[in-house]
Amino acid sequence: MSKRDRHGNMRPKEGGKAAPAVPQSRFGPMFSHFRDELDEHHDRRERIIKASRDVTALSKKIIFSCQRVNKLGPLPRRTQEDIDNRMAEIKAHLTSIEPDLASLNRYRYAHSLRCLEELVEALVFAHYLRTQTLLDPDAVEAAVPASIALTEYDYMYGVFDLFGEMMRFATVTAAQTGRLVGGEVVGVGDDGGAAPQDDSSGRRRHILADFHELSVAFELLPEVHDRTFRSKMEAMRTSVRKVEKLGYGIAIRGSERPKGWLPDFKDDHDPGHDE
């Protein structure tokens, strides 16, 4: 059987003459161009996926640092330094893929760039701990390193995930202090330049009030016919119910709770099982 080289030409037989070159097809250059485009696409996609994984991991580390805080207000110096260092690393990763996300490629590779949801979650969570307010989309866009545009879904889904972090924060601080975080009297010089929001009585809103205010805003959103939206909406409602149950337990039986008590959410009421 005759063999061909990698260019498609017949290899000469041992001791024989070289086989005549196969004529080049007029479609050859076109398919070679397609091959080069596909190779470039796969290389670009791999770079984006790798950077996205690194940014996701760093964003989670920022969230873990914030979860070690036990009160609302200015973040401890070590926590803020850790956040600044992580954000510098995130900037390096995002800057490295800026050319790959130019023009329409930003939307072409949107599913490979899911790290931005995690980054938004980390930014809005740290901002909430400092000020007890929600970071708006423009401020998030300005805080994201590199000139990579955020989509409305990046912001919305990142804020959806904020509910889970707020629920964990409320649960841990309740175990440490015996009450829902917030509600402290705001004294003179207590704001540190970024005081959490207070109500008309001069007391800070407790976290359950923030849950209710933010969840009501999300409930008013027009429904998006997307499985991710429905899943995150249900997760938000579950987080709100858990913090409500936590608050009710503290208000009704708080004095009976031992120090370090953590709530048991195994018996949470599931509205899908009403009889």
From TrEMBL:
GO terms for cellular component: cytoplasm; nucleus. It holds the Pfam family Translin. Residues 7-16 have a biased composition (Basic and acidic residues). GO terms for molecular function: sequence-specific DNA binding. Keywords: Cytoplasm, Nucleus. Residues 1-26 are annotated as: Disordered. It is found in: Cytoplasm; Nucleus. Belongs to the translin family. This is Translin associated factor X.
